[in-house]
């Protein structure tokens, strides 16, 4: 059986299992187990199942992930998400499509206090969608902005995706985290321009919010800033510590979690029950992520054994002598893979193939990391396996059809085309802050 047949056949099996509601990690791991058995023998398959979980989970650098998740959980249980949304509504609510714009910027702010795109999409969907539907917003816009805005968390530090890429590509995680700041802001700005333009051209999509008492509105705006100062302090503590070399990324996660606890205690917003819930949320999310990660590693090793890496190399091998053609080729492959694979699986499958190619052409691997994370964000929105879309669907239930959410995301995917062109044409956007660390 050819590598192409094995690769697409295994992807089809995984999609079938996911459709049957088999957990993603189990689906990927079980397909990999059968694949090892087919390519080698039963003992090799058992050996892979036995060794991979420990080898993956014992990676010390990955300990940054539960620490940043704990920081985000504590921040969420301290009411930061709600405060950010209220502040964003106060400052942006008067614009055309103001509630959607506010949700977009609240997602960006939440990205500075959390490292999970899925968590951001879930939190903002619970807060913002009922308010937008109450104001007769288009259902696709209301849900699409939550799913798409959640991807900002993958760019704005702390970013779990950057940590994973940095570990496996052997690139400075601190530089990667800094590199995501300006692209994250650029993404939020382009999203905002699209929302405002669409609402201005067609007010029925997002009926305007009228603030009659302008003086009261300004008082609310200034008062809202007093509620979101913890976000600024977390940014200064974590990102500042990384920038000046005070902490490593792993230490930064622990420092951020400790700082989030102190902020919650000082503001009297973090109860003991909330503190315990934060640990339970962080442990549960870490377990889920690692479980998916183990399945992704197994599946990636199976694909490597099946020759998929060589297949990818052949697909773009002739393009790898020209930087622009290499970028176009990798972009097409990431878009296709993002439709089917888990983000971690995408990183583990493609990094061993693409990193040597970009390195051989003298292209900056920090900049490439930003492009990879952007493509992973796009993959979180594209059918049939758009994780953020399913997260939002889980929040809204049967109230809004799945196809409506996907259609709402298409507007943001159009924005992503513009954003990717800008980031590819102007690498300095990504590389300016990391360059100041040298």
Task: Describe this structure as you would to a colleague.
- The chain has one domain.
- The protein has 438 residues and is mostly helical.
- Helix 5 packs across helix 6, helix 9 packs across helix 19 and helix 17 runs antiparallel to helix 18.
- The N and C termini lie far apart (49 Å).
- It contains 22 helices and no strands.
Short description:
The chain has 22 helices and no strands.
Helical proportion? over 70%
The parts where pLDDT drops under 50 for at least 5 residues are none
Write down the overall geometry: globular
How many domains? The number is 1
Rg calculated over all Cα atoms = 22 Å
**Mind summarizing the main beta sheet?**
none
Q: What is the count of helical runs?
A: 22
Report the β-strand fraction as a percent range.
under 5%
The first-to-last residue Cα distance is: 49 Å
Indicate the multimeric state.
Answer: single chain
Class by alpha and beta content: mainly alpha
What is the averaged pLDDT score? 84
């Amino acid at each position: 059986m050819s590598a192409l047949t094995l690769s697409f056949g295994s992807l089809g099996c995984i999609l079938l299992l996911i459709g049957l509601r088999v957990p993603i990690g189990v689906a990927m791991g079980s397909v990999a187990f059968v694949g090892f058995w087919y390519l080698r023998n039963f003992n090799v398959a058992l050996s892979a199942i036995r060794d991979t979980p420990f080898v993956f989970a014992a990676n010390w650098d990955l300990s940054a992930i539960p620490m940043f998740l704990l920081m985000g959980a504590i921040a969420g249980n301290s009411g930061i998400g709600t405060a950010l949304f209220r502040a964003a509504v106060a400052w942006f609510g008067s614009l055309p499509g103001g509630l959607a714009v506010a949700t977009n910027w609240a997602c960006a702010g939440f990205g500075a206090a959390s490292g999970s795109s899925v968590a951001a999409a879930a939190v903002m969907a619970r807060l913002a969608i009922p308010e937008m539907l109450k104001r007769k917003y288009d259902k696709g816009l209301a849900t699409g902005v939550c799913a798409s805005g959640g991807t900002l968390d993958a760019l704005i530090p702390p970013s779990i995706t950057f940590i994973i890429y940095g570990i496996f590509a052997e690139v400075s995680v601190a530089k990667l985290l800094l590199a995501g700041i300006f692209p994250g802001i650029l993404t939020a700005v382009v999203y905002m321009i699209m929302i405002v333009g669409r609402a201005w051209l067609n007010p029925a999509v997002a009926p305007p919010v009228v603030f009659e008492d302008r003086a009261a509105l300004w008082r609310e705006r200034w008062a809202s800033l007093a509620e979101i100062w913890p976000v600024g302090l977390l940014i200064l503590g974590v990102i500042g510590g990384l920038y000046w070399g005070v902490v490593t990324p792993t230490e930064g996660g622990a420092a951020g979690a400790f700082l989030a606890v102190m902020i919650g205690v000082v503001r009297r917003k973090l109860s003991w029950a909330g503190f315990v819930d934060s640990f339970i949320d962080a442990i549960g999310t870490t377990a889920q992520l690692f479980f998916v990660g183990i399945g992704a590693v197994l599946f990636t090793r199976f694909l490597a054994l099946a020759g998929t890496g060589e297949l990818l190399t052949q697909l773009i091998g002739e393009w790898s002598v020209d930087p622009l053609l290499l970028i176009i080729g990798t972009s097409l492959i990431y878009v296709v893979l993002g439709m089917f694979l888990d983000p971690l699986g995408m990183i583990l499958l493609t990094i061993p193939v693409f990193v040597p190619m970009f390195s051989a052409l003298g292209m900056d691997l920090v900049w490439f990391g930003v492009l990879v994370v952007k493509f992973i964000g796009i993959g979180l929105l594209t059918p049939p396996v758009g994780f953020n879309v399913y997260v939002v669907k889980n929040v809204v239930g049967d109230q809004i059809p799945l196809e409506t959410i996907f259609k709402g995301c298409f507007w943001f995917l159009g924005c992503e085309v513009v954003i990717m062109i800008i980031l590819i044409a102007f690498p300095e956007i990504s590389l300016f802050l990391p360059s100041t660390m040298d």
